Amino acid sequence: MQDNYGFLGLYLLIAIAFPFVALGVAYLLRPKRPAPVKSSTYECGLETIGETWVQFKAQYYLYALVFVVFDVETVFLYPWAVAYNRLGLFALVEALIFVGILVAGLAYAWRKGALRWM
Amino acid sequence: MSLPQILFLVVGVITLGAAVAVVTSRNVLHSAFLLALTFFGVAVLYVLLDTPYLAAAQVLVYIGAISVLIIFAIMLSRKVAAPDLVQRNSQWLLSLIVAVLLFGVLAYLTLQTAWPAAKQALGVDAIGGLGEAFVGTYALPFEVVSVVLLVALVGAIIIARER
After folding, report:
1. Cβ of A58 and B48 within 8 Å?
2. A87, A88, A93, A99 alpha-carbon torsion, rounded to 10°
3. Cα–Cα distance between A103 and A107 in angstroms, integer?
4. Which domains does chain A have, with CATH numbers?
5. Are the Cβ atoms of A71 and B161 closer than 8 angstroms?
6. Pure H helices in B25-91
7. Which pLDDT score is estimated for A52?
8. Which pLDDT value is given to residue B91?
């Protein structure tokens, strides 16, 4: 069982090493001729006006709250999906009821304008 | 020591280090990202303990949703997002005492419990078995979970829209 996660660990190591290797090779190969304009943060763009710590819109938080609920729903449906081939029609109906109750919540959110961008 | 044991120790040290950094970091946004690293460490520990479903739930819910929620909450409040904020208020001593007491109780219970589940290994298809139990033996609690989630969703919308 844990051998399967060996591949996952290997993938993780490669994913972590990849940017270091790519940037390291680029560092070795590229010509180094720094200039003030070239070294600036935005070589071809506008400098930020004011602070870079901006306040996000409160709307994002409501989206995140709705997302958390459906994320937890996914966690509960995942074992059902794994066993799907062994389960009958009754299990499908049960899962549909499970999803249906939460669709009512989504309809409520939609109806109350929680999904509308303000 | 076998390889899983070494991995367990390494991941455990990383998880604990990240958890300590969460409460000592001066930038609260860095704390949030370190909290995500702590959650990830716990997920890896679940994998090492042969509980893939818990690991998947940990990644989906805690890293995918809770961390995002916390980061959004930080970015929503301009004052908290100031990079040079002191992460302490006048009640730090009280909270320290409560945290130490809670740790003591949890550590005591952990040492007292016999952990009978460790005696038999889980089958290959543990997640599928869980799915069968969800729609079989525990069909009613399964549907009640949906209602609980619905209540949480409606409650969150009502509270968030009052502002």
Report:
1. no
2. 20
3. 6
4. 2-111 (1.20.58.1610)
5. no
6. 28-48, 52-57, 67-76
7. 67
8. 87
Tally the C-alpha atoms within 13 A of residue B77's C-alpha that lie toward its C-beta.
Answer: 10
Total beta-carbon pairs less than 8 A apart between chain A and chain B: 147
Which positions of chain A have pLDDT values less than 50? none
Question: CB distance A102–B153 less than 8 Å?
Answer: yes
CA-based nearest distance A20→chain B, Å: 20
User: Is residue A102 a contact partner of residue B153, using CB atoms and an 8 Å limit?
Assistant: yes
From the list A53, A62, A68, the residue facing B65 with the nearest CB is A68
Is the complex ipTM higher than 0.85?
A: no
| Min distance A100 CA to chain B CA atoms (Å) | 9
Residue A59: which residues within 8 A CB-CB, separation 6 or more? A117, A118
* CA atoms B126, B145, B64, B22: torsion sign: negative
